[in-house]
Amino acid sequence: MKDHDPQRSALELAHDAVQAVAEWAGDDFGYVDAETYARRLAACEACPFYTPPPARALYRVARWTSPDARICSRCGCFMKLKARLPKQRCPSEAPDHPGLTRWGEPLVR
């Protein structure tokens, strides 16, 4: 997965979002279990890439849906949403566990 480029266009970010929704639809709009979601978000909370979104229109819209609209500065995703979806992955390798993401799941490049 490419690192998030703060200059990526709204169209590129929207494309990634549509792709994630399509994958989610392929999972019958299912969610990960509560334990997985809590583990993923705890990893995000401890991650240096978990940051407030940039001041761009696309991100301002998302703040209407959640009081905590922080993103992953590596991929540009809203982690409170991404962490719920079964096929989504953390883009960062765990610093102390090579081959695993910060979520503790296999790293996919």
Write the layout of secondary structure elements.
Elements: H1 10-26, H2 34-45, E1 50-51, H3 57-63, E2 71-72, H4 79-82, E3 93-94, E4 97-101
Antiparallel strand pairs: 1-2, 3-4
Query: What global shape is seen?
Result: globular
Main β-sheet: number of strands, strand sense, barrel status?
2 strands, antiparallel
- How many beta strands in the DSSP annotation? 4
SS strand fraction: 5-15%
SS content category: alpha+beta
Question: Mean of the pLDDT scores?
Answer: 83
Q: Number of domains in the coordinates?
A: 1
Concise account of the structure shown:
37% of the residues lie in helices and 10% in strands. It has 109 residues and is an alpha+beta fold. It has one domain (10-101).
Give a written overview of the molecule.
The termini are close together. The radius of gyration is 13 Å and the shape is globular. The chain is an alpha+beta fold and 109 residues long. It has four helices and four strands, in the order H-H-E-H-E-H-E-E. The longest helix has 17 residues. The chain is 37% helix and 10% strand.
Which descriptors would you attach to this protein?
109 residues; two-stranded antiparallel sheet; alpha+beta; single chain
